[in-house]
From TrEMBL:
Keywords: Membrane, Transmembrane, Transmembrane helix
Name of one Pfam family that matches: EamA
Gene3D superfamilies named among the record's database cross-references: 1.10.3730.20
Residue intervals of the EamA domain: 2-135, 147-295
Membrane-spanning ranges: 6-25, 32-53, 59-81, 93-113, 119-136, 148-169, 175-193, 214-235, 241-264, 276-294
Xref: InterPro entries: EamA_dom (IPR000620), EmrE-like (IPR037185)
Name of the molecule in the record: EamA domain-containing protein
GO cellular component terms, A-Z: membrane
């Protein structure tokens, strides 16, 4: 049952990274574009290491187009994800993002000719209801809608499409190699953000501070480790079961964000009123339940 351990390690590590990112974007960097650029610069170290060790798997074939396309889709996913995280609570944004099984199911029916049972369509409805509840903020403004959660939906959409495209690419290429190819081809796109003067100044200022660089390197390493844990889980367990357990991530993030807001409010401060926690808990239960039903 090693896949359970690997899956739990992946979910818990990703959840910790979500909390870290929310803190970093809110406290250390003003622009989510600066964050996504800096993050991908640090990812270069880990992807380069993978390339040097497994360069024999980097073979040019017609399927490389799918790897590149998946990289482009994930490029937009990262942008919308960090825009969402910069404007919304980590627990709510993560919950809305995990509505992606909805898009995956629809895409699987359209492009992969898969059939979806009535039970799974019912699970899709649960996820939709959960996402709506999760995006409902209380006591902040007169409006109950926050654009951050719309960005989270867009991130989920691009992630779902990227997953389907990656599936084509992994027919003859290892999953991590597909990810690396997509990364190397899309890395130059992130530098377009430097045309913005304020982003250029913020990025330059960041790389002049040693402590921030060390912190970001640590964060990048954690994220890459989470990816490896997830891949090890896939390699030792059933894909459906691994995906189902991975769907519990919003629950982990909710617990972490709540505990951090209570004990370390200077790091993260989210709504922890009784009404807010009820909304969050119910929404997470609906989304996690729906994701598990769809995955199995």
């Amino acid at each position: 049952m090693s896949w359970i351990i690997y899956s739990l390690l992946a979910v818990s590590t990703f959840s910790f990274v979500n909390i870290f990112d929310k803190f970093f974007i809110g406290k250390k960097l003003k622009s989510p574009y600066s964050f996504v650029l800096i993050l991908n610069i640090f990812y270069f170290i880990f992807y380069l290491g993978y390339f040097l060790i497994f360069r024999s798997t980097f073979v040019i074939n017609p399927l490389i187009v799918w790897s590149i396309l998946s990289g482009l889709l994930y490029f937009f996913m990262w942008i919308f994800w960090f825009k969402a995280l910069s404007g919304g609570e980590a627990s709510r944004v993560t919950a809305v993002f995990f509505s992606q099984p909805i898009f995956t199911s629809i895409l699987a029916v359209i492009f992969l000719a898969e059939t979806v049972s009535p039970l799974k369509w019912m699970a899709t409805v649960l996820i939709v209801i959960g996402a709506i509840l999760s995006s409902r903020e209380t006591g902040k403004t007169k409006s109950t809608f926050n654009m951050a959660y719309f960005y989270a939906i867009l991130a989920a959409l691009f992630s779902a499409v990227g997953g389907v495209v990656s599936k084509y690419a992994t027919v003859h290429t290892p999953t991590l190699t597909v990810s690396a190819i997509g990364y190397f081809f899309t890395l130059p796109l992130y530098f377009i953000f430097l045309k913005n003067r304020s982003i250029f100044k913020e990025v330059r200022s960041f790389f002049s501070e040693r402590k921030l660089m060390i912190t970001m390197f640590f964060r990048s390493g954690l994220s890459y480790a989470a990816i490896c844990f997830f891949m090890l889980a896939l390699g030792s367990g059933k894909v459906s079961l691994v995906a189902a357990l991975n769907g519990s991530q919003p629950l982990f993030v909710l617990i972490l964000s709540t505990l951090t807001s209570v004990f370390f409010p200077k790091i993260l401060k989210e709504e922890i009123s009784r009404q807010a926690l009820i909304y969050k808990t119910v929404s997470v239960i609906l989304i996690v339940t729906g994701a598990i039903i769809i995955s199995i």
